[in-house]
C-alpha cells in the first residue's frame, strides 16, 4: 500500500491493538491508586498476606514508559521469542526437505473421508496433555505441525491451529493435574493436592466435547465452501489458503526417501524429548529452543548440507515466524506497565470486596467473574493463583464458600479467557503460525468462550449448592 493512499476501513492488526492496550494500561496507572500486599514465601510459593493491602506512592507510566515497556517486554519474553524462532526454523527446514509434505500426504490419504476421526483423536491427545500440564510451551511448538497436517488433508491453516490449540486448552482450562495452576491454587488454599479430580475429569470431558464440536463445525463449513475459511481474502486462489485443493487432489503415491524418513524420526525424537523434558524435568523455553537447534543441525547433516547452507536455511526459517515472535514481545508490555505502575494488587483488592456482600452461591459466581477480569491483567495462571488465592480463601471461609469451590472459581476465571487474550503468548504466536488475523479470530471464537463461561457459572452454582469439598472423591 502506498503511503498516503486512502483505503477502506479495516480491523486494526494485532500490533495496533496491542499498542492501544499498552496506552490504556499506562493511562490506568494515572487513574487507579498504586497499592501493594505484603507477601511471604513458603515452600517456594510467594503468597499474599490477607489484610495487608496498603496504598503506596503512585508510579504513573508516561509516554516514554510505554515504549520502554515494549522494549522490556521483548527482553522479559526473550526465551519464548527465541523458542518461536527456533521451532519455526526447524519446521521450515523440515518442510523444505519435503519430508513433512510426503508424510502428511500419506497420513491424509489414510484418513481420507474420515477427517473428523483424525481431528477427534488429535484433539483428545492434546486435551489430556493440557489437563496434566505437559502441553504448556509445547502447544506452541506443535501448532506448526498441526498447520502442516491440515494442509496435507486439504484444509486451511486455521483448522490446523484449532486442532492443536483448542485441543490443548480444552484440558488446560479445567486441568485436573496441572501443578502450575490447580496445584498452586490448592497448595495456597491448603487442601489436598489434586483433590476433586473426579469432578474435574468430568468437566474436562464436557469441555473437550464442546471444543471438538466447535472445531468440527468449522471443518464442515470450509469443506462445504472453502471461501468460508478464515484465511480467505477476496481474490485469493484456492491454493493460497487451502492445502491440496480442499482435499480433492490426488495425494496418493507420496513416498519418503531414507533421508526424509530419518529427518522425520529426528524431529519426532526432538518433540518426544521436549514432552518428556517438560513432564519429568520441568523443561522450559530455553531447553526446547536448544533441542530444536540440534534438530536443525542433524537434519542438515542428514541431507549432506554444508554448514553455510544450514545457517542460511535457519535464518530463512526464523524470518518466516518473525511476526509470531514479535507479537509475544508486544503483548508482554501490557502486564509490565501494570506491574511497573503498581496497580495490579489494587485491582485484585477492590475486586475482592464485593464478594463479601453476596451469599455463598452468588459469591462463588462473582469469584469466577472476578477472576475472568483479573486474567486480563495477570494472564499467567501461576501468577494469578499466587495473587488471588490468598485473598479468595479467607473470603470463602467467611462467606461459607468451600475452599475447593474457590479454587475452581479461580480455575474457571483464569482458563477460558486464555483463548481470547492478546497477552497469551501461545495464542498470539499460534495465530502468527496460522496466518490468522486476530480480529477475524475474535469474531469467530467469542460464542465458544461465552458458552464456556456461562456453563462454568452453572457448574459453580451446582458445586457450591451441594457443598463440594472434593476430598471424598
Automatic annotation (TrEMBL):
<feature type="transmembrane region" description="Helical">
    <location>
        <begin position="63"/>
        <end position="94"/>
    </location>
</feature>
<dbReference type="GO" id="GO:0005886">
    <property type="term" value="C:plasma membrane"/>
</dbReference>
<feature type="transmembrane region" description="Helical">
    <location>
        <begin position="115"/>
        <end position="135"/>
    </location>
</feature>
<feature type="transmembrane region" description="Helical">
    <location>
        <begin position="317"/>
        <end position="337"/>
    </location>
</feature>
<feature type="transmembrane region" description="Helical">
    <location>
        <begin position="141"/>
        <end position="167"/>
    </location>
</feature>
<feature type="transmembrane region" description="Helical">
    <location>
        <begin position="12"/>
        <end position="32"/>
    </location>
</feature>
<dbReference type="Pfam" id="PF03606">
    <property type="entry name" value="DcuC"/>
</dbReference>
<feature type="transmembrane region" description="Helical">
    <location>
        <begin position="444"/>
        <end position="463"/>
    </location>
</feature>
<keyword id="KW-1133">Transmembrane helix</keyword>
<keyword id="KW-0812">Transmembrane</keyword>
<feature type="transmembrane region" description="Helical">
    <location>
        <begin position="201"/>
        <end position="219"/>
    </location>
</feature>
<feature type="transmembrane region" description="Helical">
    <location>
        <begin position="262"/>
        <end position="281"/>
    </location>
</feature>
<keyword id="KW-0472">Membrane</keyword>
<dbReference type="InterPro" id="IPR018385">
    <property type="entry name" value="C4_dicarb_anaerob_car-like"/>
</dbReference>
<dbReference type="InterPro" id="IPR051679">
    <property type="entry name" value="DASS-Related_Transporters"/>
</dbReference>
<keyword id="KW-1003">Cell membrane</keyword>
<feature type="transmembrane region" description="Helical">
    <location>
        <begin position="357"/>
        <end position="378"/>
    </location>
</feature>
<protein>
    <submittedName>
        <fullName>Putative membrane protein</fullName>
    </submittedName>
</protein>
<feature type="transmembrane region" description="Helical">
    <location>
        <begin position="287"/>
        <end position="305"/>
    </location>
</feature>
